[in-house]
Amino acid sequence: MNTPVLQLSGISVGPAHAPFLQDINLELEAGHFLGIVGPNGAGKSTLLSVIAGLIEPASGHVDLFGHCLKRFNRRRLLQRVGFLSQLHDDQLQLPISVRHAVAMGDTRYASPLWRRPSSQQDVLWAMEQVDIADLGDRDFRQLSGGQRQRVRLAKALISRPELLLLDEPSAALDPSAQKRLYHLLRRLCDENQMAIVMVEHDIAAITGHVDSVACLNRRIHYHAMKGEQIPEDIWHAMYGEHMHVIAHDTRCIGCVAEPPASSTAHRH
Amino acid sequence: MELISHFLSSEVMRSALVPALLIAITTASISVMILAHRLSFLVVGVSHASLAGLGLAVVLSLPLLPTVTVTALAVGWLLIPSTTGNLRLNNDAGTGLLFAGAMALGIVLLSTTNRYQVDLFGWLFGNILTISHRDVVWLYVAAIAVLGGLLLSARVWWAIAFDATAVAASGISVSGYRFILHGVVALAVILCVKLAGIVLTTGLMVLPAACAWFWGRSLGTLWAISLGVSLSGTLVGLLVSYAFNWPSGATVVLALCILFVFSAMGAWIKQSGQHRRQRV
Description:
Chain A is α/β, with parallel strands linked by helices. Chain A has helices at 44-51, 74-78, 98-103, 120-129, 145-157, 175-192, 203-206, 232-239; strands at 6-13, 21-28, 33-37, 59-64, 67-68, 81-84, 163-167, 195-199, 212-217, 219-225, 244-247, 264-267.
């Protein structure tokens, strides 16, 4: 049996009386594409931060590539992980070209000035993956929100990580760019055996691409594999009683017109 | 040409020229990081708080430069939570409070002693012409520390300024690198005080990269432009100060300000031209 790329065992974060995350157990094989959905404040980004070593869990442990993530091996293990955090408007105001921004994601970039920071081929490969090869010389600050997001994704991809963590990667992307992004991620899983954990709000948009969906609201309420239906009581446990679940297929366009007082989730 | 030959024949100016150029190279290099990490106000804070170090050195009869340096380092590190947004106050409020408090302490300490051997005016406004041999040695040590820190860490600092979360997620200690950066900036501040004084140091440390900000598109080009601006501003400033007998530090800062105005105007003209071409 192959060693799992990621294994979370009994992860809890925050004070015991009001944890942000509670008893999270999860295992991910190479090439698996996991989507995490849940309401605002459910702990989705916190969970990604725990996996990326940014937050120390109160209990439990994170295993990456068969090794427990500790202070002494953090650098070595996390070099094999790509991470895309949520996009904030106040970030990223340096006067740099797109090419330079992408190169910053290379693990060799954090070397002293006399060493080579990255190879031009790797930069070009990463830019080609997200359709920005023609933007190489543009000033990063002058890009649109969607273009910036693609640059950040190229930056996360440049080291060809074995595990990719994505926090709302489709934010600021138009529908066609979103679709291309999910196709790209699917291809990376299938061809490069990259494992992906992706946090998204819109379950309808991702279900056709991911291998499984974890429903998170402080704890994992359900882990649905491809083709499996998520029971209605799980939706209610996650989003509350005011939620209506609408079954539809990809051709259904009008089903978003719901009463304004209720929150809505889609499923195929 | 006559002015330059007069300038070079003056022993005072000749002995000031090398330290001034060394300061220009060092400040130009760190200047890019100061702008990238939005540390301009930290520079103001550290330079003004160094007056507390001066007061302590005078009252306790301690060696001046080491005491001021230690004070600057301490203030620089104390201000890490303020510059990284980890205070409950606004980011700039913490810096403002500490620098006002430290400066007040310095003034009170200096007022309690009659020993005014220290050149207070020189510390406040700078005077590279009175630099001593011991100061020059210290300048070399501080410059090597600053430039060495840059050689080893510039790329990580740059990446942190771009996306600190991504750097932390690659297993690099962002807080450790910020600690080193604040220390290096504090050292560079004390290096500059000799030329521009407590009051004008910010100009030397911010203006070179501010000029480059309009034109550079990578760490290398920003550094190169910043270096060119800093060296030319320092040389022109020293020449003009010699010609008109103006204070050297203030004249260098004025020269840098003029270069900044030209750089900003050039960038504005270039951008207007691009917009016009796009409309056509």
